Write a sequence for this structure.
């Protein structure tokens, strides 16, 4: 059975996931088999496992850092905001329905306790170390005694805890002291160390504060981690990404920042290409001079299409397309670009909605969600991206319903990896003398070696420009380098001997 350790935070966005990711990498480097575990996560971005199960992207990133395959055991409950104050509830990788948070709490209390315990025990049986991650603040005064998102789960696992605080937002010692003092005495005793994250400045300036917090709480400070230019994917933070460099930006790719945008990390590969500017567009006036427009995935396709229609973004995109600007849709964005969207089963808002008319597709939503990993190759790609023809790719699909399209317009050919079989057409394109319009359901397709860089080269060529130095982007290798950089950073600034001692001694 694995030895557990739990990482909790004084508030949301203290960097718990970042610390867990780094610890996963360190344990892997040190020859330990380690796995992440977050009992309940709320996120718009998700990932599909080899078994076709949907989990939070954060736990998939942590598993990748640990060099293991992600499974639904690592994130047994995922909540995805779905609009109208509802969340879509994913349990052990499969959707069980949409509900309000009040109804979810009732559902949680009745059915999910056993699921969380069983998932943790199955995971712990397979690894040397399990790193649990909390959610929000573990000492909220209205939380129940068996809060399985935080210390309740630590109690189940008998996991010693590390409390992470965010220096960047100020008041770090007050939030540390307040969080610890508001904990129940038995929970407070489980906290074995403190990490201060996101520090910038001279370390000596913290000496008196560190001494004070240790004296007042009786809990040692294990380290102070500085702000560092390390590029680890964030689940739901559009502003968190590291920009590629200071090279002149020759081409601009605009991503529409839909209200219910999901899996925005799909486009990170473009930011690694010198000369490419990636912007997130919130209103029509910002859509000025793009070389390509991307309509991303969304948790509410119909609602977000109406939003674009109401604030003028749809018309601006149509105008740009007629002027020759490339438009590329992914998942829900791809569905929007068709001729019609029908929702007879009220999966989203119900009814029938006219699409943008950029592609000759018709989408029928159904209550069956399609979630699987895929592999394949680009087919007879026409227009500006014709150099993609024949390139292989991998990725995953997450969507509801079926989209029909003329097969002669297909963009790619693919098959699910969990059930290899016949290669089938996927995606769609519309190319004429002016317009270059493409769409696909496949998340992660731009991460594949040579895809984003081939597209960027085509956009540079269209503009009559040539980048100074652009190699084929292998985003997978890039991420591995970032995990190693994160592990190096934590080793320098955290006392890993004490971390290992906490893991070995337990509670």
């Amino acid at each position: 059975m694995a030895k557990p350790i739990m990482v909790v935070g004084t508030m949301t966005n203290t960097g718990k996931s970042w610390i867990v990711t780094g610890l996963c990498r360190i344990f892997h480097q040190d020859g330990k088999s380690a796995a992440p575990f977050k009992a309940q996560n709320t996120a718009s971005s998700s990932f599909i496992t080899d078994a076709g199960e949907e989990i939070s992207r954060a736990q998939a990133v942590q598993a990748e850092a640990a060099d293991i395959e992600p499974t639904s055991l690592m994130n047994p409950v995922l909540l995805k905001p779905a609009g109208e104050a509802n969340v879509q509830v994913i349990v052990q990788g499969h959707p069980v329905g949409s509900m309000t948070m009040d109804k979810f709490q009732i559902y949680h209390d009745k059915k999910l306790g056993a699921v969380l315990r069983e998932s943790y025990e199955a995971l712990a049986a397979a690894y040397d170390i399990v790193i649990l991650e909390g959610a929000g603040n573990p000492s909220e005064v209205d939380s129940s005694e068996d809060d399985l998102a935080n210390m309740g789960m630590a109690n189940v696992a008998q996991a010693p805890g590390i409390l992470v605080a965010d220096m960047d937002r100020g008041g770090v010692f007050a939030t540390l002291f307040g969080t610890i003092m508001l904990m129940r005495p038995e929970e407070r005793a489980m906290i074995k160390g403190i990490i201060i994250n996101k520090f910038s400045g001279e370390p000596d300036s913290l000496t008196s504060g560190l001494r004070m917090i240790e004296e007042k709480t009786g809990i040692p400070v294990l380290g102070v981690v500085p702000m560092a230019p390390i590029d680890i994917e964030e689940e739901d933070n559009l502003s968190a990404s590291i920009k590629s460099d200071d090279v002149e930006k020759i081409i601009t790719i605009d991503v529409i920042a839909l209200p219910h945008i999901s899996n925005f990390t799909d486009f990170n590969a473009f930011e690694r290409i010198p000369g490419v500017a990636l912007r997130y567009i919130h209103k029509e006036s910002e859509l000025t001079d793009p070389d390509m427009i991307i309509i991303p995935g969304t948790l509410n396709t119909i609602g977000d299409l109406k939003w674009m229609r109401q604030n003028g973004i749809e018309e601006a995109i149509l105008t740009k397309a007629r002027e020759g600007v490339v438009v590329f849709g992914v998942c829900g964005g791809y569905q929007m670009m068709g001729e019609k969207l029908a929702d007879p089963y009220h999966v989203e808002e119900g009814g029938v909605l006219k699409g943008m008319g950029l592609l000759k597709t018709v989408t029928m939503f159904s209550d069956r969600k399609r979630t699987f990993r895929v592999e394949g190759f680009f087919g007879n790609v026409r227009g500006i991206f014709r150099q993609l023809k024949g390139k292989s790719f991998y990725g995953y699909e997450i969507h509801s319903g079926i989209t029909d399209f003329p097969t002669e317009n297909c963009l790619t050919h693919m098959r699910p990896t969990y059930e290899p079989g016949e290669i089938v057409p996927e995606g769609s394109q519309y190319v004429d003398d002016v317009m270059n319009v493409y769409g696909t359901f496949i998340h992660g397709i731009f991460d594949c070696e040579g895809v984003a860089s081939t597209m960027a080269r085509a956009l540079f060529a269209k503009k009559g420009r040539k980048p100074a130095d652009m190699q084929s982007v292998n985003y997978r290798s890039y991420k591995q380098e970032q995990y190693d950089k994160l592990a190096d950073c934590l080793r320098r600034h955290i006392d890993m001997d004490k971390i290992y001692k906490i893991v070995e001694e337990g509670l």
The chain has 14 helices and 24 strands. Confidence is low (pLDDT under 50) at residues 239-245.
